[in-house]
Amino acid sequence: MTKIMDGKVVLVTGAGGGIGRDIALAAAAAGAAVVVNDLGASLKGTGQTELAAQKVVDEITAAGGSAVANADSVADPDAAREMVDLAVREFGRIDAVVNNAGILRDGFFHKMTYEDFDAVVKVHLYGAFNTSRAAADHFRTQESGALVHMTSTSGLIGNLAQANYAAAKLAITAFSKSVALDMKRWNVRSNCIAPFAWSRMISSIKVDTPEQEARVEKLKQMTPAKVAPMAVYLASDRAADVTGQIFAVRNNEIFLVNQPRPIRSVHSGDGWTPEAIANHAIPALKADFMPLEVSADVFSWDPV
Question: Is the pTM of this model over 0.70?
Answer without folding.
Answer: yes
